[in-house]
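Section 4.2 – Deliverable D4.2 (structural model, holo form)

The reporting period included a commitment to supply a predicted holo structure for the target in complex with iron/sulfur cluster. Inputs used:
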Amino acid sequence: MEEQVPGGYFGQALIVDLDAATAHTKPIGESVLRSFIGGAGLGAWLMHECCPARADPLDPRAPLMFVFSPLVGTPLTTSAKFAVVGKSPLTGRLTDALASSHFAIAGKLTGHDAIVVRGTCAQPSVLMIDGSSVSLAPAGDLWGLSAAEAERRLRERIGPAWRVAAIGPAGERLARYATISHDGRHAGRGGLGAVMGSKRCKAIMVRGHEKVLSADRAAVLAAAKELRTRSFGPATAKYRELGTMANLLAFNAISTLPTRNFTAATFEDAPALAAEEIAELRLLARSSCASCSIGCEHLYRGPGGSKTRIEYENVFALGPLCGVGDPDAVIAASARCDELGLDTISTGGTIAWAMECAEAGLLDAPWLRFGDRGALLRAIEEIGAREGLGELLAEGSRLASARVGRGSDAFAAHVKGLELPGYEPRTLQSMALGLAVNSRGADHNRSGAYESDLSGRHDRLLAGEPHVVAAIDSEDRAAVMDSLILCKFLRGVFREPFSEWASLLNAVTGWDADADELACTARRIVLAKRLFNLREGWTCDEDWLPQRFLSESLELPSGRLATLSADRLRAMIDSYYRNRGLDATGLPAVGTLHELHLDRLIHN
Ligand code: SF4
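Output (structure tokens):
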């Protein structure tokens, strides 16, 4: 007897083989859907199922997945999102990059909860998925174009009903932190654009014909109305008014703005870069992702009058981290990263590493200096082209420092190979733990523990048990939000998050999940990712921070020293392991696997 598919799902993934230009479906049972929800969670399960053990991320056998969620296609605000999942060329570990756009809706309405792409095209191609039917079209004329231009030409050529996710020149050239873009949004971190480039796949086009039904349509409509109203409230005001750029001056004031490759945590030119100061470059335009009522995108005037989306993370990475305080240069650098298809955080992090190496005489690049806007823009061009120094820098700071040697790894600010985001670990010590233990590497979207540091509930400079509790709580919340998938900027509107998320899920699926079940699901997803990494060779040495943060203190304006010793980090990690049901080496205990049904669901 056929298993009934819960509301919001199709109960199957489309598995595409690029070698043969064929596809088949893989059924996904209700117990898996309920255990992993969708997005990042279901992606972790699919990676266990579909990725051959120890496959190199750029090997044709390594899959690239587009994973949807049960909420996609509902009127719930910010739900038009999908997760791109695979092995990161930067880390060699699991990565999931979330993005929002109409691609999520069209992709899901092909009738699948996920699209898994394996193999390699014989020549540069566009993969077209029309329902369950797949075909390849030559993409020679698109090769070398930006993702946005390739998307524009394809939709003009084939029709507006198709939605497109594409890579830019950096992905084609296998820059290890290349992005996948669509509707001007980017699945940014971890380098999955290089995985797509390794498959010679310039773009994936999807067109959907199916309908997705919710179990309780009236309840979904009521929840959507309520959530929309709340999304206009004070919890999201910051994002609507100034966007995440509002963080820049605030972070500078409390010494948590990474500057000149983490050698300082305040930047003398921060006021010049702040949203309030560059208002004249700001267009009176705000934009939003598909199906979003918040609209956090603030558009700035870029080179040649172009519109460029500016957020805290790209300004921090291409500005203070590289010592550049000229807003025109930072906007131009950000716009160029978008055109080339480069993750701005890893781009800035790798260039900042190279600037410090060049100043210390470890790299023969006398033109590359902190604060030099021309050097920043030149380095970005060379990375996108993989020419000159770009051949080295396109590898990311970890591999580049291994190649350069001579102690240059001391300047490489990464965890598991992923460059750090804009949160100084020495002055945000819950976040320090979150960055160290996350399966994806140093990332602020899978651990938002900085919020707890900034809340004043504990001393952010003195790591201890409250910091461990905060890091675990933050990771669990992210695991559920990234699997449902709802925008993190909506997080503040939920008063009882786990029970409210359970209600949304129940209205769509017809399940009877409660807060306890979702808390358990969160733990399962976090550990499923850890288990995947373990299968790929992870050891507990990878749960650590770069030595700079443990051996150099920061002096704060108050005169206090911000110090994070190796002993204190070790104590937090040990406590994290205990509280997560892991042994002293970070491996899940048998009882934990059993309790979370991971022994049954994950066979390897
Ligand atoms: S709040 Fe911003 S990032 Fe989130 S869905 Fe809306 S526009 Fe997109």
